[in-house]
Amino acid sequence: MRNKFDKQLEVLNKDLIEMGALCENAIDCAVRALLDHDLEVADEAIAIEEEINQVERDIETLCLKLLLKQQPVATDLRLISSALKMITDMERIGDQAADIAEIVMHTEIRGGYNIEHLKKMTKCVSKMVTESVDAFVGRNLDLARDVIARDDEVDALFIAINNDLIKYIKEDTENASTALDLLMVVKYLERIGDHAVNIGEWVEFSITGTHRKNVNLKR
């Protein structure tokens, strides 16, 4: 019985890694589409969202089967419960990447905007998503806490981009509409970072039995 359970956990880990990779690809495609004004790549990001939704459904089905058939307790229960929470955040990451892609449909960045902070923020949140899933699969508490701590870096980049956008508008008021769209993009990236932090907190909980928001499923 335990052997079968362990094999199903391996499938769960594999599916989570796949979902995390899809989230990373969706973020990359969405921002690349914005920077290059590439509508085909934007469509690709939107299509990836559907794949993310499907993997979420598959993982949810597997977790419910494990809960109903195996009736896990203690660490195993925390593991599966955390996975169910994580996929909700990952699904929302896919949604927000698609939202960025939709902004691309009516936004083209004019010359004069410094894109370096935007690129850095994208790279940061993508890495947070990937490493939060890696932390779960590898049962790596230090890595999970590193993801959580990196929220400060995302916040700092958000402020830096806000300052960039103010300068962008001052240089030419015709940039104002584009700046507002870019601000929405940055808000979505910030939310993606928040979801990665949530995932890191659920990884921490799955290992320690203690959640920073006082959730307790120790049993």
From TrEMBL:
Its main location: cytoplasm. Pfam families: PhoU. It comes from the Bacteria. One of its GO terms (biological process) is intracellular phosphate ion homeostasis. InterPro entries: PhoU, PhoU-like_sf, PhoU_dom. Gene3D superfamilies: Phosphate transport system protein phou homolog 2, domain 2 (1.20.58.220). It is found in: Cytoplasm. Keywords: Cytoplasm, Phosphate transport, Transport. GO terms for cellular component: cytoplasm. Plays a role in the regulation of phosphate uptake. Belongs to the PhoU family. This is Phosphate-specific transport system accessory protein PhoU.
